[in-house]
């Protein structure tokens, strides 16, 4: 990479009379030019990451940092009278929704950073995840036209487009390449659907509404579209290089399927080999078995995709017949393995006229992995129990990670410099060295307190501009930022805040450090309960923020349009990371790791990666509460009666009654009554309080108040926070990616 070339070009760049977008495009192009200049040896074996989501966020600052020119660019621009922060007005590329998509982006960053050949394949959505506005407390979705000012980080590859065929239409998959800079320059290839109006719809929206048959078919088309484009390309490349033999395909290619969404790639691969390249089914299956691996990201049944056989037959008849043939092979294998009929039906690719994507990946996949220790254990003992019995060698754990380049160096320059001053700069190239900080934490407490205060000041300034809420500098920051879902229990946080509010008002809490609760979340547009929870939190925020009696002590902020760039500010400026999912349901969480690395304590349940966080950073440096997995299991088995809890506790009574006594206004939507009912009487599809909100609420409030009182001793609290940073190296996605590279993909630097 020729750094000097970029710096010369930038110095020469004429800036007069150019608007921010023009400058953004011009500077980005200069960076692309110099970033792509490097020549590198092609890798013998590549790994490919197929994912419906790549939540890359903003590329500008990150790419300049990866190219090693960010600081100098800042200075050069400053000399020209331009504050580099002006480019913050350029949209994030929100081509993803949550953890799974952000993980994919972190993995690409880490692989490039380490020099490992990992390439991404996905969809170039015209509109990313909707932008969220809050109107009268309700979530309103606005289109996210992320390319409206151009997309200088992508290169269209017109002559590499390929035709993807459905029974009723054909669609061009046109590749757009986004280089991923690091020690190696890797590539994220996103396909855009082109053709007639129907064809273009395929890459129009991320998560189009799928509550109608048409919506479901559109999603099926999306999944097949990008999987088939990727597989077609890899097979063609292989033939070009090695001729028409495929027994060696897995020596050069390893394909990772990010959750169930791209699993049709397996069927497409077998289809291509058997119908276009005259490989017999058994041989094609053997090659596939060595090539594909699958990561599961959630145990929630609604996310484990199944396709009706009619749906597949209708638009992908050839895939239907391949799936049926693979199913016949599967049945033979089950007979050989002497599986019982129940076991066979558990693992069947095809059952009750549906195809199970997870079972296809379990049968054909080389490896299957969970994303945190507990999650992998649950896969083995529960969700995929039968498959684990017959194919134990396929199962692995790969605890998630996050890239420290974006989530520490870029978003928290101040803390990074403090670390440099304490242990030197080598940790920037080898994150495991961050562990050296542990023996130094006592020396840097006052400096850490200063850094945290500065990051909070920056965050509060941003919140003031974007949300119009004033927060004074002495506030403790508690944050819960993640997709909105009932199992993540934002509702439990809302109820806990109400309890604290009540106790402040009636004087039961005598001493209280001023605290702000920050929420960031988007609800799937058709997920009514999630929207109800957003409205509830906004009602609470309005009431509490305008209460003159308490608003010096307590505030609540719901950020309107939570995204990667906002997250960068929130993780750096937070004291307390709220990770409060029902035990057993959060596969891993990755926000928890970002907060930890930035020196926040975790207030959470023994769930997902929280368990590993406290294992490494110490229970004494974090705040764990609530039922653990075995207790939840017991409650489910022995019966759980939330109404009893409400009756016997003032706390539950008060907070809960605000949902039905008119304290808050849901605009006659019936939303709040439904939330109340969901906790007390349940619904046709679930028991009351299926996520055990009321069960864990009291211990949650206790934990929040314990944190509040511990915070009085600023030095001790800062020490806990620093111990979290010092022990966070394990949660770098560099570590995770090395594990995938070694134990699944078998690729090398
Ligand atoms: C499924 C069927 C139909 C339509 C949509 C979906 C669907 C879409 C997105 C199912 C799941 C997702 C996203 C899941 C996700 O983000 N999971 C998160 O993955 C993270 C990375 O491993 C974990 O840290 C989180 O715990 C997990 O929730």
Descriptive report:
With 749 residues, the chain is of the alpha/beta class. Strands 1, 4, 7, 8, 9, 10, 11, 12, 16 and 17 form a ten-stranded mixed sheet that branches. The model has no long low-confidence stretch (mean pLDDT 97). The site of ligand 26Q has 18 residues, from helix 5.
Helical region count? 31
Quick one: overall form? globular
Cofactors, ions, other ligands: ligand 26Q
Q: What is the SS-derived class?
A: alpha/beta
- Major sheet: 10 strands, mixed
Mean pLDDT: 97
In helices, the fraction of residues equals: 40-55%
From the N-terminal CA to the C-terminal CA, the straight-line distance is 18 Å
* Structural Rg: 26 Å
Unreliable stretches: none
Counted beta strands: 23
As a percent range, the share of strand residues is 5-15%
Short summary of the structure?
With 749 residues, this protein is an alpha/beta fold. Helix 1 (3-12) runs antiparallel to helix 2 and helix 9 (264-276) crosses helix 12.
What labels describe this entry?
single chain, alpha/beta, 10-stranded mixed beta sheet, globular, binds ligand 26Q
